[in-house]
Amino acid sequence: MPVKKITPVLFVETIEAVIPFWTQHLGFIKTVEVPDGHRLAFVALQQGTAEVMYQSYASAQKDLPGIAAEVRKSPTFLYVEVDDLNAIKAAVNGMEIYMAERTTFYGAREIGVKDPAGHFITFAQFENPA
C-alpha cells in the first residue's frame, strides 16, 4: 500500500516557544491551532508539502493517558532535506547548533539545530550529480 504522507508529531511542554522557529525563521505557516485555555494544545505547521505538528504534554495526558509518560522520555530527531543549506544557515543564525556544517560520505551538506523545545533537526542539501 503506498504511503501518501508522513507527518511527525513532536511533544513539548509549551507549543508557543516553537512557533517562531518554524514561522519566522523557516517560512512555515500555521495551518491548525487547537487552544486549551490560554495555552495551545496542538499546532500544525506547513511549508509546501512539508508538515510538522506539535502537541503539548498536557494535551497528551488528556488524549493519550496510557502513553503520556512515554512521550516525555526523549527528544525527537528530524532529518529535513532542503534545496539551499546556505539559506537555512542564515535563518537559524544564533540558534543552538548541535552539529556544525559537514559534508557526508553520502553526498549531503548538513547542519544540526535544536528547536526551542530541545528536539534535534538536521537540515541536509544533496549536491546534484554532474
Task: Write structural notes for this entry.
This protein folds into two domains: 1-73, 2,3-Dihydroxybiphenyl 1,2-Dioxygenase, domain 1 (Roll), CATH 3.10.180; 74-130, Signal recognition particle alu RNA binding heterodimer, srp9/1 (2-Layer Sandwich). The protein contains three helices and eight strands, in the order βαβββαβαβββ. The protein has helices at 19-25, 57-63, 85-91; strands at 9-12, 29-36, 39-47, 50-56, 77-81, 97-103, 108-114, 120-126. The longest helix has 7 residues, at 19-25. It is globular and about 45 Å long. The model has no long low-confidence stretch (mean pLDDT 94).
List the helices and strands and how they pair.
Blueprint: E1 9-12, H1 19-25, E2 29-36, E3 39-47, E4 50-56, H2 57-63, E5 77-81, H3 85-91, E6 97-103, E7 108-114, E8 120-126
Parallel strand pairs: 1-4, 5-8
Antiparallel strand pairs: 2-3, 3-4, 6-7, 7-8
CATH top level assignment of the largest domain = Alpha Beta
Number of helices: 3
Question: What is the second-level CATH architecture of the largest domain?
Answer: Roll
Could you state the order of secondary-structure elements as H and E? EHEEEHEHEEE
Span between termini: 34 Å
> What is the count of distinct domains?
2
Query: Tell me about the biggest sheet?
Result: 4 strands, mixed
Oligomer: single chain
Instruction: Estimate the mean pLDDT confidence.
Output: 94
Main sheet: strand order: 1-4-3-2
CATH topology of the largest domain: 2,3-Dihydroxybiphenyl 1,2-Dioxygenase, domain 1
Helix content: 10-25%
Our estimate of the beta-strand percent is: 35-45%
Q: Describe the global form.
A: globular
